[in-house]
Structures are given as C-alpha cells and as structure tokens.
Amino acid sequence: MKRNTKDLRSYLAQVAQMAPALYLKVKHRVSLHYEMTAFVKKLGTESLYPIAYFENVEKSDHPIVSNLFANRRAIALALDCRPDEINQVYIERLDNLIQPRMTNDAPVKEVVKRGDEVDLRSLPVPKHHEKDAGPYISAGVCITKCRDGQAVNMGMYRLMVSGPNEGGIFINPLHHGAELLRQAEMKKEPLEMAIVVGHHPALAIASQNNEPLGTDDYALAGALLGEPLLLVPAETLSFPVPAMAEIVIEGKILPGVRKEEAPFGEYTMCYGMKRRSPVFKVKAITHRNDYIFHDVIPSSREHLGLWIIPSKEANLYKKIKTVFPTVKEVCLPLNGSGYHAYVSIEKVRDGDGKNVLLTLLGSEYMVKHAVVVDEDIDIRKDDEVLWAISTRVQADQDLIIVPRARSSVLDPSSYGLESLFSGEGMVTKMGIDATKPLGTHFPEKVQVPDHVWKKTDVKKYLPK
Ligand SMILES: Cc1cc2nc3c(=O)[nH]c(=O)nc-3n(C[C@H](O)[C@H](O)[C@H](O)COP(=O)(O)O)c2cc1C
Fold this sequence. Notes:
Bound molecules: flavin mononucleotide
Oligomer: single chain
CATH superfamily of the largest domain: Electron Transport, Fmn-binding Protein, Chain A
Radius of gyration: 23 Å
CATH architecture of the largest domain: Roll
CATH topology of the largest domain: Pnp Oxidase, Chain A
C-alpha cells in the first residue's frame, strides 16, 4: 500500500526523481564481507559519492542501501532544502518541534519475531574492514527512554553481532546514551533500547543532535521530517517505536555486564582498540516483509557526513553567531574527522579572529584545530583555507595553543596525564587566525575585472 508519510522508500524515490545521478542501483552480486566497503571507498577515490543500493547481496534476499549521507546534496534532499541552506534550516526546524503521533498502520510490524524466533544473524549484517572483530550493525538508530519517562533519546551506536540474540554495543562516555546507561546501572536496572535499521534519513540526522538530554528526540525527528513521526507500541518495551521503519530490534542493555568488543574501523580511518563494552540482549525483531537494510560504511565519508552535517556544524554556527554576529559560515570539513573547523567572518576589529577561535575551541569537544578566515575565503574549499594560512599567518602572533584540553577518546593521538598517544581523550587544541590585519595596507588579492569573470563561461571554450 502506498502511504503519504515519509520513510526510507519515499526518500529514495525522491532522490531518484530529483537527483538521479546521486542514486546508483548496483545489480552486481556483492559479498557481505568487505566488498561493499571496497566498492564505496573506491568510488570515493574518484570523488564519486552516490547513494549505493545493492540489489543483489550474497546470502540475503534483501537489498542493502549505503552512502546516504556522503554528500551535502543528498543531506539537503533529506531536509527538503538546498545544500547551502542546511545549517540555517536545521536550526530553524529545531526551534519548532513536531510531536509524534501513534498509528495502527505500521509496516514495521509485517513480520514479528519474539523469543526463540529471534536471530540477529538472519539479518544481512556486513563485516566492513579486515580487522573488525565481527559483523557490525553500523546504522542503527538506538532509542532509549529518558528517566522522566516522557522523552526518548536517540543516538547511533555500533552493535557487534556476537550471537543470535546478543551484541556488544559501544557508547562513548561523553554521549547522552552513556549517561542514561550510567543512571540505569546505578539502580542495577537494565536499559531498554530499540534499534531502528532503515528509516527516512531525517531520523538518523535527528539522532545526531546536540540538544540537552531530556529533549524528546521523537519530536525533534518530526521537526526535521516536517511532519509527525509515526509511532506504534513496541512488542516488549515500555515506549513506542517508529512505525515506518524497515526493521526494529527491541532489547535491553544488561546492567554491569561488559564483554570484549572491537577492534572496529572508526571515523578516524583507524582501528579502535579492543575494549570491554556493554551487552545488548535482543527480545524481539520486527520488520517489513521486503525490508531494506541500511548500512553506513564506517570510516567513510558517509560516516562523517552524518555525524558532522548538519548537527555539529549548525550547532557551532548557532553558538558562534550568538557571541559574534558577523560570522559568515562554519564548515567542519569531512577530511578532518570532525577535528577540524573553519569559520569565515567579516572582521570588524583587530582581535576578532582570536575571540572567534576561543569560542570555537570551547564550544565543541571534538574541535581540535580551528581556522578563522576573512569572508573572501570560501571555507568549503580546502585550497582557499590553506592559501589563507600560507599568506596571512605568522606563527608567533596568530596561533593559540591549549594543551591538555578534552576531546575524543577515539583520537588516536590523544593522551593522558601520564602517557602520550594512549587514547585517553586529552589533546592539544590549536587555533589559527588567518584573517588579515585591519588598518594596514595589506596586499590585495589578484582578480580579473568582475564583468570579465562573470561572462567567461568555461563550457563555451572546451571541445564538444
Ligand atoms: C555512523 C555513525 C556511527 C556512530 N557510532 C557511534 C558509536 O558506536 N558509539 C557512540 O557513542 N557514538 C557513535 N556515533 C556518534 C553518536 O551517534 C552521536 O554523537 C549522537 O549524537 C550521540 O547521541 P547521544 O548523545 O544522545 O547519546 C556514531 C555516529 C554515526 C554517524
């Protein structure tokens, strides 16, 4: 039955219609082990980032879709806006939450498996990189209930499939999910969790939000979707789950239990080390008859795209704009693993650049290296930012260095008080002020006359 609500299928149809070059249907049979990773990453080496829909997956009757968030155009389509509007639209939508709605019409309940019928291994879960400890569900939106019993929290946490109804789950200690687990464990209670695999991309984008714990992430997903998120009662959980999902896995994180999990290819493009992680016990799996499995290739451009755009970028833009109204744009380039930030400003007073850097470095724990430039620099182009650093920076005057600041434990070069490169999450933050000084005759950037620049249409000069 065709429905008028947004889901993964309506999004794929929208992309196929509005941006067909962004949607690649792969008919070639692919293995669940490594091949999709190799394919998507090889396309990336040629600067190609289409959504990849693998129709023919070995040992599975179901297709796998990947690379949904690898470019700004695809993310913009998920939010029904233009790529240059993403940050602004994201901020505006979060100010206008849309409450979820219950429904009886739930495609995700077409198949319901409980108890002994449950087997995670029946899902087409890929193994992505050579040294990964096992197959990983990498694109699961993990939903938990906040302690107030009203709001839900969403985050994406990887799940290593380790048995028919068991998986190792990694939640970064700085994330809200970890705080909810800590609160549950203090009471020696399990933490109920639903894992959604496959939905409209707005749900995954909503899961990456930086709003305070206690904000209802279902209402936030509605705001990004532009319509209420449809919910249905869960089989085994005390909170409802998204009705238009492809797959929902219901279960509990066991209190106080830790088992070996990882190595795993992280967003840093390095393996994260083996660790003792919480254990998720599956109680039920529900899915559509013809479900589409969503996979994010870890340590790929898609992984970073979803994590950084728009949530971290828009959030930083909002914070900096509050203290510094002449900020033009904020960009977290995808080649910086989330650790690099570029900002362009209209410089009004000498010293402005340094103040912006101080705000940037303190506003987002991930940002380790920040660069501020003038508004004549296009911060979406690395070449321009590097050019500004080469011609407008003197290291004794334009750098800020902050040793022993907190960042991510997954930064391979992070350290602790006693040891370097130990992955203990302390880093040395650096700000580079690549703005021109005001009030001096700083050399002008070369240009051809504006009218000549505008009328020179390169296509007319190239061979047909
Ligand atoms: C593809 C992808 C995989 C991720 N995997 C993890 C993970 O395994 N563990 C984790 O803590 N965060 C992971 N993250 C980041 C969190 O999902 C993200 O920071 C989220 O906002 C955390 O939500 P929370 O603070 O509400 O817990 C991942 C992000 C993406 C895009």
